[in-house]
Amino acid sequence: MQSVAKRIANNFAQKELQAMADSEPTISTPLLAKSASGGDSEGSQTSNQSPPKELQCCAPDALTSGSRHRSLAVLSGHIGSVSCLALCGEFVLSASRGKDIIAWQQPDLRRFAKFGHGDGSVKALVTVGNRVFSAHQDSRIRVWKVSRSSENVFRLAATLPTTKDYFCKFMRQSNYVQTRRNHRKLWIEHADSISCLAVYGGVIYSGSWDKTLKVWRVADLRCMESIRAHDDAINGLVAHKGLVYSASADGKIKVWEKARSMHCLKGVMEGHRDVSWNAVIVCDDGRLVYGGGSDGRVMGWERDVGREGWRLVCDVRAHEMAVLCLCSMGEFVCSGSADKSIGVWGREGGGGLWRVGVIRGHEGPVKCLQASCYSVGEGFMLYSGGLDKSLRVWWVPRIRQGLE
C-alpha cells in the first residue's frame, strides 16, 4: 500500500498538471502516469480505515491552495451503467447493471481484471480483508477471494446463503417466512434485490428491496439474524461503532443496536413527507448522520448522547433532482445526483453544510461515489460512477474556496 501511495505522488510530480489551465476536459485518459505494475498487494482494507500518516503523500505545486478540482480520468468498459464502487487495496472496483465487476489498478488506473457471476446487476460492494462481497439483483451475495498466487485474482469463493446454511434449515417449517405474492422462503434468504451492504466488527449487513435487514457472520458466512426493518425498500446502509443505520423508501432512517444476540431499534430519523431516502452516511466519529433524499435535499442529525436521540441540524436543498449517493472525507461531504452533478459540501462544527462547489462532467445521473482515504497534495481522490457507463476520477482540493 505504501508503494502505491508513493507512486501516486511521484506520478503527479512528473505530469504538467498546470497545463490543464481552468478548462475541465469532458473526456480524458488517465493523468496518473503509467508505471510498472509489478509487486504484490500488501493486503486489503475497508474504505473507512484511515491510513498511517507516513502513507500520506504530497503533490507538486500545481495542486496547491486555490486550485479547483481536476478531472484525472474517464474510464469506460462496463456493459451497463456503473452502480457501485469500492476500494480494495491497490484496486478500485466498479460494478455495473450488466453484472460485471472491473478492477482498476492504481496508480495508472489501467483495467487489471474483469469478473462477475449471476443474474441481474451488481448493487453493492464491500471489502473485508482479502475478500470482496458483492450484492446482486438476483437476491444473492457473492464472496470473492483476492489472491495474487492464482491467475484468477478475483475468484468466486461462496454464494450467500451458503449451501450448508440452506440445508441446515430447509427441513423445518418454522424456518420459512411469508413473502409477497404468497411465496414462502427461508428467513436466511432475501426475497428481492439486495440494494446495499455494510460491514463492521466481523459482520456483514445486507439491506434489500424486500424491506429486511440481514446479518451475516464473516467468519463462517452464516446468516445470524433477519430483521423486518422497514415498510418499503431499503436503499442505503452504514455501520459505525456498533450502530447500524438503514435508509428506506418509507421516508425513515432507522438506527439499530445489537443487544445481546439480537439487534433492536435504537432510534428513527424522518425527513419531509413522501420523500424516499436513497443514501445515508456517518461523519465525525459517529456524531453526525446525513441522508440524501428523492427531493434533492440532504438532511443531517446530531447524536444527543445524553438523551439517546438524534436532533436535526441540517436541511439543505443540495440538487435540483434526487440525491442518489453520498460519501464523506474529513470535513467534506460529497453528494451525487440524478441531475448529473456532484456537490461538494463543507461541514460546520454544528453539523450544518455549506456549498464548496459543484463538479460536472457525467453525461447521466451520478449513482455512486467513493473517496480515497489517502491524501494527495492538499486534496483527495474522488471516484464517481454514473448511468453514462463511465467511472470518473477527480482530484478535489481540501481548500474550501475556489473549487468551481
UniProtKB/TrEMBL annotation:
Give the transmembrane region(s).
none
The reply to whether Repeat figures as a keyword in the UniProt entry is yes
The record's section on PROSITE patterns has: WD_REPEATS_2
**InterPro entries this protein is in?**
JINGUBANG-like, WD40/YVTN_repeat-like_dom_sf, WD40_PAC1, WD40_repeat_dom_sf, WD40_rpt
User: Which regions are annotated as WD repeats?
Assistant: 227-257
Alphabetically list the UniProt keywords.
Answer: Repeat, WD repeat
Task: List where Polar residues composition bias occurs.
Answer: 42-51
Q: Where is this region: Disordered?
A: 19-55
The protein in question is named Protein JINGUBANG
Q: Which source organism? A: Phoenix dactylifera
